[in-house]
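To start, one record:
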Amino acid sequence: MAASVWKGMISFGLVSIPIRLYAAARTKRTYLHQIHNECNTRLKQPLFCPTCNRMVDRSEVIKGYEYETGQYVLVDGEEIKKITPPSGKTMEILAFLDQADVDPIYFDSSFMALPDEHADKPYALLLKALQDTKKMGVAKVSMHQREYTVFIRARKNGLTLHTMFYENEISSVEGYGRHFEVKLKPEEVKLADQLVKSLSAPFKPEIYKDEFQQRLNDLIEAKLKGKTVSAAPQQAKARVIDMMEALKKSLASHTAAKPPKIAASSERRQHRKAG
């Protein structure tokens, strides 16, 4: 099993649940390193002290805040431990929210919480309460030298936590969310709605792939074998001139791609001939 990133307790009311947190998702990608083009050596960024004029071992490194140019307030590990709030060991649930009330833009990193030894019952109790009420808890937890607000929700018969972006971390982009001074024709709205419905499908995460990463891996594999890789196919995008015509063509092409129902097949053939 992967190493846990936090160990402590979830508490709500007088109920305490010893848990461990595990990263729920990590980005997987192929990394390309910086290589010196003269000798094909990977370039590194070593810890070098210009004052002592030598390389520095990681055991010699402490933290420091630069309050003026070249002037630092030094902080060591023991001092960090002393100022860590209670949420460093216990995340107390402060409130329960309706899941629909929280905009997903506030979700940051995700973690899976597993009960520690002999903690199955209180874990199952909180899980069942969240499932029955369709609520999620809000708590605070300190880790990695920062205090996070987290959402605790039921997911696939387990407790999943999401760290929250704070309000001041959500970007404000001028013009976003403004009222658009355009008039939409009822027919355009109807066709757009129909197109959305025709493209609707259940969420199956396994069908979505990172095509660039796959082609990058293929390129590396091919170069190892002395081969080349063909260029990725590019789809030409037609310029949208008539919105109604574009919507009709989009809807027609997607409808035609679906297996026709037997009862309606003759009607569709007549419609195509008429078009």
User: Anything to note?
Assistant: The first strand starts at residue 6 and ends at 12.
